[in-house]
Design a protein that fits this description.
This protein is mainly beta. It contains 3 helices and 13 strands; from the N terminus they run E-E-E-E-E-E-E-E-H-H-E-H-E-E-E-E. The protein folds into 2 domains: 93 residues, Calycin beta-barrel core domain (Lipocalin, Beta Barrel), CATH 2.40.128; 128 residues, Nuclear Transport Factor 2, Chain: A (Roll), CATH 3.10.450.50.
């Protein structure tokens, strides 16, 4: 699987033509290598500089105690490590080795989905339940992008719409899912059109504010077949705090 972030905690064995080395990514800036046999045998922790190149490829470099400098290109999709080393005596090595994962990475907890869900829920209820136009400036980015063709662009236009909403407009939030910087919320809004509507709103979050919005609306229709389920149920909102999608 392609990696987009440095897999901290990962341990790999790399088989070069003339020796084997074990690499442990202790942190985003520290690496431990262990060479068990041969003239280069030793264990050392080094400070690394890392640059992601995309598509599961990372380049990292470090300087060792004896003055050797090493640049590694680690390709996790292909399971290969390309190593370029200048030894203290000036000898230059180019090596390609196959990697075997001996310990998986530590999966760090990403709190963004939870925070982004809370932001979207606060925005939807502030604007379309309480009709609080002042929340727009606080929750939406200054250059907010609107993909609904019936709503003008920008934060000021949204604020004006909220300020002019009739009292009977009311939004009910339901299921909400989040990943990375995107949040999708399923809900029902009454008073926006002649009939209650089911809506899916999708938001992109940037720097803690709502930066971009897409939506799809459909008039609510009652169940007409035996065993059918409604388009929206308020109880689905109880799943808001469930696990994030994989």
């Amino acid at each position: 699987m392609t990696k987009h972030c440095l897999p901290v905690g990962l341990e790999i064995d790399v088989s070069y033509p003339n020796f084997h080395v074990s690499l442990s990514l202790l942190s985003a800036s520290l690496l431990q290598f262990e060479i068990k046999e041969g003239p280069f045998a030793r264990t050392e922790i080094v400070v690394i500089e890392v640059l992601p190149l995309g598509n599961g490829v990372f380049i990292m470099s470090w300087r060792e105690k004896d003055g050797a400098t090493v640049t590694n290109v680690q390709d996790y999709d292909r399971g290969l490590v390309y190593s370029f080393a200048t030894l203290p005596d000036g000898q230059f090595l180019r090596m390609t080795g196959k990697m075997v994962v001996t310990r998986p990475e530590r999966l760090s907890f990403d709190d963004r989905p939870r925070r982004n869900k809370a932001l979207v829920l606060e925005a939807m209820t502030s604007l379309f339940q309480r009709h609080d136009a002042s929340a727009v400036e606080r929750l939406y980015a200054r250059d907010y992008i609107q993909h609904n063709p019936n709503i003008p662009q920008g934060r000021d236009a949204l604020q004006a719409i909220v300020a002019g909403l009739p009292e009977h407009v009311f939004y009910e939030p339901g299921l909400i899912v989040a990943g990375d910087d995107l949040v999708a919320i399923h809900g029902r809004i009454r008073g926006w059109a002649d009939e209650p509507q089911i809506v899916v709103d999708i938001f992109r979050i940037e720097d803690g504010r709502l930066a971009e919005h897409w939506d799809v609306l459909q008039n609510e229709v009652s169940v007409t077949v035996h065993g059918g389920v409604p388009m929206f149920e308020p109880s689905e909102g109880g799943r808001r705090d469930g696990p994030e999608p994989a």
